[in-house]
Structures
1.
Amino acid sequence: MTTRTGAPARPLLVVFAGLPGVGKSTLARQVGSALRVPVLAVDPVDRELGRHEVTEPRPGHAAYGIVAAQAETQLGMGVPVVVDAVNPVAATRRLWQEIADRTGVPLRVVEVWCGDETEHRRRVESRLAEEGGAGTPDWAQVVGRRAEYEPYVGPRLIVDTAVPGDPLPGLLAYLR
């Protein structure tokens, strides 16, 4: 059920997960636009922290914390939120469950994959060329992150962006 604006009638935490270059940011933005809710992305926060020369013992940890704080604030005000992050390990995934539990809102996880490795590599290399490399991983870094990516355990919708067709209708149905 949605409101007249298309937003969910109740607060909802939607978390996108998946390796760089699989299409999760594109899908997160499409869902945010369709539902007219904020999309909070970890990568831009991480890049901005780097621009300000913020260093930390666990790279990326602060960006997740900042996005989590923003998400919890929005959810506390009754505003649904979409989070866009790699979420490669159980610790980051627990963060979102804890926020959902504290705020009393449902959590919907969307794990995005690109089942065609050639296409995945093309996307990563195209993005690297377009963005100029500042904080954008190259293919070797994505392969390294894939090796560290822990299997996702728990309820979620899995979307393979290499499969032809528009996944948005199915995604929106999952979120209702």
2.
Amino acid sequence: MSGAQYTLTGRLAVALPPEAAFTLFTPRGEELWVAGWRPRFQMRTSDDSAPGTVFETGAHDELTIWVVAARELGRRVSYARVTPGSRAGTVTVEVDADGQGGSTVRVTYELTALTSEGQGHLREFAESYRDFLRSWEVDIAHHLESRPPNAAVQS
């Protein structure tokens, strides 16, 4: 047993109202702004954030299996995730209006190491979590700035 467990929570700003910002945190929505994010679905799905939806990613040469665990459309989505032989846990994204036409997004990772290698990955992730979320904020802002005027957010 590795013994490493982390709960990491942070916030970022998104210059979109909550319903539009929410779509950026769905599996297909993240493709718009996360370099190298390519979810692979084993079954066709028209609603990639529906509870029970399963997909895989291969970032950093690691297979991660994701399951949409819960969703409040336009407001909150939770994913269970497992990187076999390394770490497992949940990721929850909550989107709220910021009172100025944009959104505040709270992102919580609850992860447990499955191996000593996973423990090292989690320690590094925890140490850089604030910078990790800051990079999300920057990448999303860049994506929004690069869209044509009046372009809708795709999901």
3.
Amino acid sequence: MFTERGEEVQLPDVARSAGVGMGTVYRHFPTRDALVEAATEDRFAGILAFARTLAGEGDDDPVLGYLHHVGEVLESDRGLSAAIEALRGTPGSAPLGRTRAELEEAVSVLIEQARRSGAVRPDVTVADVHLLVGAISATVRTGSGPWRRLVDLTMDGLRPRPAG
């Protein structure tokens, strides 16, 4: 529903769409904010699962794969992004609590893999990747340009430089 209607989704809409009573919805989501946060956590759980799968595949450039995946997720569900922004009162979103820590750990593994394969410089950090995710989010949210091009240009800046 967030994909279709963005921040306009209300709990009665969810109940109708799910074919359940309002009481059932309120038992699971006592407020609309709780519903948005649950949808947000679900989004980040999916991104986390992707990052862990990517780490297990031994890809030579997993940071690039991760950034492309995040961009695709954001692009495919701008409605949820708008709902998160409206709830939190700030552009973009970031995972909270345990999910944030787990995602940081997973991204750290991807960075280390990319370092070993020579895909990124030795000084690339999790904070750098989060900064890039924020830039992708802003680009998708505002429609200010092609986010894939942003990723490609940025990754060029993260590549090791030849000595000399």
4.
Amino acid sequence: MELCVALDLPSEAENLALAESLKNYNIWMKVGFRAYIRDGKSFIEALKAINPDFKIFLDLKLYDIPHTMADAAEEITKLGVDMFNIHASAGSVAMKTVMERLDSYKNRPLVLAVTALTSFDEAGFQRVYEKSINEKAEQFAKMSYENGLDGVVCSTFESRAIKNATSKQFLTLCPGIRPFGEDAGDQQRVATLELAAKEGVDYPVVGRPIYKDAAPQAKVEKILKVISTF
């Protein structure tokens, strides 16, 4: 299990200050819509300047026609990030097109597919997809696995079933982690670190419980100490 810290603060300066305080830890940094749209490529470069060993997850959730997604995936690869994601609902042709485009890159980033956003509750999800979250997430995961992706973004509650339906090596990255039972905020399907470990989560994503803590560095140390026991 590898910790992924979400850099979702209101300004580039605040995000970089957080990254600076965490530069001595072997962790992932998640760069999402807000940060990338506001701060762009230079923000990723600034993170790498703080610590060249930071692993970067660019969380843009690509969703478009297959060729456009493949073009975007290639440009993301050129940024030197270590992981990015697409929406599984873009379909198998889009997945295949993206992965074929990246075949020529020796050190391509990991590619994950988003299954069901953790902001969905069961009732809201079924209104959209007419299936349970577990059913649809597993269907999306199988499609992703068959088309050569490295894993999926899901909640902790789908992780075990997804690995059973695909492979133990098929990665699960799970937002909505509240390490020690912190407030859920706008997330619906949240989980503790202990539950994430039991469900085989590879990358627990933690944002607000870290950056809203009065001592984020100490919080990360506490999280890493717990992770080391699993």
